[in-house]
């Protein structure tokens, strides 16, 4: 029940870090070694550390990395509400991942966030619908690198068991809380600037400043940070050796792109993310209409939408936290979480309109659809090796996320208000499809692990080249999938 030791045998404190098997040597002839391997080889004098020192390093990483990612996601999500935004994101997603591979991650995120701020402030000056649409599209293009960057950063700094909780915290629903409070406060101001323009100016100015903060303070990798000592860098790298997915590689490798698109797990994960996020585009876009349809005024509707952020956060943590102690229960937790919006879909359709409290609670708990998301996008971090392959799978997952946000609003029809039967039935179908996809994904990973155990043995001894090398999960003998 509790998480077992890794199936791959290696001694992280052994001076034989540079030792390789014949298989390692054959692969190394085709694939250069991750820079982390060389750093560990160069500093064997730091290999003698204990778990308490490793814990202190992890806490130091948390205090530096996590606030930067959480705030970045929060300020980026408050203005992502229209389909044209997601179209820009979708179009730019694959190029954005290529940019993240070629250029420093921290600097790239800082520059793009600065760009967000400039575009958001320009929204306040838009004179017509065409101008707004162009700016929203451009905003989507600029936000395309953000989520893939979060996954790359998590892979660099955290163990597989630690990643779901960090992603859940990063992607928590703080944006709903912030947007609701800020919108309510600005809506009650009385000045010559229209409230919606003032909102864009305030948020855009903060994003400009935050982009500069990220450019200076967000590290590009454990090898290029300034807040860890040399010994702490060694520990940070050695901690994540067991992930067997490497740190970074700047070369685009087309064979890894082909492998990503011929791996059935890629498509199951893409379909799962698509299925759980059609509700994002639907319920989030029509959330104000759904709540106002219960008989509440404009400002009351704004306030009553604030708790949705708490539901998003709660559901994410309920799925992610158990992964710290239980091995291979991720897909089970995600599938169970998907059952909650299935029930809420039925309640929203069939509860009497007079039952405002019941319908409002069903609306709140429907936001459990977000719960599996953070864990779902942590699966490519733990289950995909090879830097190009990982970025390709990541890009495909976020393309599905964008497509879902574009599909969602199209199934809610104004003339069906306030019950929206077509919308809720469509969301119900997608949630059921999500459960089927994640069940198939888990079964596939389970079967592949068993096949590898029979072929390679349960305890596979591998060298550092395989642990950090830019090889795919199919190429690594000791690799086992999480589910």
TrEMBL record:
<feature type="region of interest" description="Disordered">
    <location>
        <begin position="1"/>
        <end position="31"/>
    </location>
</feature>
<feature type="transmembrane region" description="Helical">
    <location>
        <begin position="165"/>
        <end position="186"/>
    </location>
</feature>
<feature type="compositionally biased region" description="Polar residues">
    <location>
        <begin position="13"/>
        <end position="22"/>
    </location>
</feature>
<keyword id="KW-1133">Transmembrane helix</keyword>
<dbReference type="InterPro" id="IPR011701">
    <property type="entry name" value="MFS"/>
</dbReference>
<feature type="transmembrane region" description="Helical">
    <location>
        <begin position="65"/>
        <end position="89"/>
    </location>
</feature>
<dbReference type="Pfam" id="PF07690">
    <property type="entry name" value="MFS_1"/>
</dbReference>
<feature type="transmembrane region" description="Helical">
    <location>
        <begin position="391"/>
        <end position="415"/>
    </location>
</feature>
<keyword id="KW-0812">Transmembrane</keyword>
<keyword id="KW-0472">Membrane</keyword>
<dbReference type="GO" id="GO:0022857">
    <property type="term" value="F:transmembrane transporter activity"/>
</dbReference>
<dbReference type="GO" id="GO:0016020">
    <property type="term" value="C:membrane"/>
</dbReference>
<feature type="transmembrane region" description="Helical">
    <location>
        <begin position="361"/>
        <end position="379"/>
    </location>
</feature>
<feature type="transmembrane region" description="Helical">
    <location>
        <begin position="427"/>
        <end position="447"/>
    </location>
</feature>
<keyword id="KW-0325">Glycoprotein</keyword>
<feature type="transmembrane region" description="Helical">
    <location>
        <begin position="198"/>
        <end position="218"/>
    </location>
</feature>
<feature type="transmembrane region" description="Helical">
    <location>
        <begin position="303"/>
        <end position="325"/>
    </location>
</feature>
<feature type="transmembrane region" description="Helical">
    <location>
        <begin position="332"/>
        <end position="349"/>
    </location>
</feature>
<dbReference type="InterPro" id="IPR036259">
    <property type="entry name" value="MFS_trans_sf"/>
</dbReference>
<keyword id="KW-0813">Transport</keyword>
<feature type="transmembrane region" description="Helical">
    <location>
        <begin position="109"/>
        <end position="135"/>
    </location>
</feature>
<protein>
    <recommendedName>
        <fullName>Major facilitator superfamily (MFS) profile domain-containing protein</fullName>
    </recommendedName>
</protein>
<feature type="transmembrane region" description="Helical">
    <location>
        <begin position="267"/>
        <end position="291"/>
    </location>
</feature>
